[in-house]
Design brief:
The complex is a heterodimer of chains A (about 290) and B (about 170). By secondary structure, chain A is an all-alpha fold. In chain A, about 65% of the residues lie in helices and about 0% in strands. In chain A, strand 1 and strand 2 form a beta hairpin. In chain A, helix 5 crosses helix 7. The N and C termini of chain A lie far apart (about 115 Å). Chain B has 6 helices and no strands. In chain B, helix 1 packs antiparallel against helix 4, helix 1 packs across helix 6 and helix 4 runs antiparallel to helix 5. Chains A and B meet through helix 2, helix 4 and helix 6 of A and helix 1, helix 4, helix 5 and helix 6 of B.
């Protein structure tokens, strides 16, 4: 065998080195009509002017279109719930506008007001729970949430103190500029049904508003934009929901912004809920104490 | 993002943002002018309302103002407080208009924040107007629907634009 290297070579000739494959156009598309390549971003074939068709681009466009439509649907759902919450607020406003302006409020008047508040808050709660049940699977928390859990819990109390100070300062400035005295909440300070009223002022908003603004709105926006912008957008929604106190819009934006960041840092709704409850409770207690 | 479809979509979204900017400028300037007029006219409006109330008892504001200072001390105190409240409400209205203008100015930089804030603030202000005066719900309802519809489509476009920017930034 060794003596016939030439025969072996002739029987098993080494395959000739493969010719380098023609360069595959990376960003080119084949024209269906003239079978020549044109750049993928050209709207028409450069040779025969036939409309270009890039399957990958078409798939990508279809995927993008689907995502855009889904985003639009989710935003529309959030927007409708937001609109209905505003409508409930307006209805409540009309109820209180039509009640006689008698001071001090009697027990039946306070009971009727508390009942109206309870009904409005129950409707709000049903709307938000319905939205949560429908949207929680499609609006998931954005990746990256909850990475600074310890920081969130550590900052909670100092931030609450700062918010309360900002609230007091903001209203003091407003009252000073307008030269008016702050008005107390006649219903809370009437002395009737205190526990019921405190529950209405502190428990329901802490759960329902946080569920809507921080779980649904903030998580939705944080998928599409930066955390800061998502926090601001959800805070703007939160502030606009407080129809009865639109003058305090800047303060509500600040409050919503801080709560959204705490939600982001802690990764949980529990912390914003607790702080929201504590905030409303301390303000109500302060109002009761000063009267 | 170098396909013709992507560039067409981006162009359409940019048009939506331009529309949002136009709407926010329009709403902002109208709000500032209207609320500014009301702010400047606050004293006359309050005097008319007080005259109407006093008229039920057969007196007028000018008659009350001729009373000695001690006799009308309580009246003056309430008048000052009411005047302050009216100015606060109309001042807040002017501030609202300024926020709309700020949103219009920041549409390109922060599309989502600007359009969402503009939309929810506009709806919030409509709700406040409706709460104070229910008849305002139907006043100019077609323009209101057009503004809300335009802002909703702008928010959707802004969400897509910011998502695109983020994915481009991430490489």
């Amino acid at each position: 065998m060794n003596g016939e290297p030439s025969d072996a070579q002739s029987e098993n000739p080494e395959p000739p080195p493969a010719e380098p494959a023609p360069p595959q156009p990376q960003h080119m598309v084949l024209c269906r009509r003239c079978r020549r390549f044109s750049p993928a971003d050209a709207v028409r074939c450069l040779f025969c002017r036939a409309p270009s068709r890039d399957p990958e681009a078409e798939r990508s466009a279809a995927r993008e279109r689907f995502e855009t439509e889904e985003t639009g649907k989710r935003f529309s759902a959030l927007f409708w719930i937001f609109g209905l919450l505003l409508a409930v607020n307006v209805q409540l406003f009309w109820y209180f506008r039509d009640t006689p302006d008698v001071k001090p409020l009697t027990e039946p008047m306070v009971r009727n007001s508390a009942m109206a508040l309870t009904v409005a808050e129950a409707v709000d709660a049903l709307l938000v729970i319905f939205a949560f049940a429908r949207l929680r699977t499609v609006i998931e928390p954005a990746p990256g949430i909850g990475r600074r859990r310890r920081l969130g819990w550590l900052l909670a109390i100092p931030l609450l103190a700062l918010l309360l100070a900002a609230n007091t300062g903001y209203h003091w400035v407003l009252m000073t500029i307008a030269d008016i005295k702050p008005e107390v909440d006649e219903i809370v300070t009437s002395g009737h049904h205190r526990i019921w009223l405190l529950a209405l002022y502190c428990v329901q908003p802490a759960i329902i508003e946080e569920l809507f603004c921080r779980r649904l709105a903030f998580d939705f926006f944080s998928h599409h934009t930066t955390v800061g912008t998502a926090a601001f957008a959800s805070a703007a929604m939160f502030a606009s929901m407080h129809t009865g106190a639109l003058v305090a819009f800047p303060y509500f934006v600040l409050f919503g912004f801080v709560m959204a960041w705490l939600r982001w840092w802690s990764g949980s709704l529990v912390l914003p809920m607790i702080l929201h409850f504590a905030h409303n409770f301390l303000i109500s207690i302060h109002e009761l104490a000063t009267t | 993002m170098n396909s013709p479809y992507a560039s067409l979509a981006t162009s359409a979204r940019s048009q939506e943002l331009k529309k949002a900017r136009g709407i926010l400028w329009f709403v902002g300037i109208i709000t500032i002018l209207f609320q500014g007029f009301l702010f400047a006219n606050a004293r006359n409006e309050l005097d008319e309302a007080i005259n109407a109330e006093l008229g039920k008892n057969g007196t007028t504001l000018s008659q009350v103002q001729t009373l000695p200072a001690e006799a009308r001390a309580e009246f003056d105190k309430r008048y000052t407080s009411a005047f302050g409240k009216v100015r606060l409400i109309y001042g807040a209205g002017i501030a609202l208009g300024v926020i709309f203008v700020l949103c219009a100015l920041s549409v390109d930089k922060k599309p989502v924040a600007a359009t969402v804030t503009g939309l929810v603030l506009y709806l919030g202000s409509l709700a406040v107007q409706a709460a104070i005066e229910p008849s305002t719900i139907v006043q100019g309802i077609i323009i209101k629907i057009l503004i809300v519809g335009g802002l909703i489509s702008s928010v959707k476009a802004a969400l897509a634009i910011e998502k695109e920017r983020r994915s481009q930034a991430a490489g």
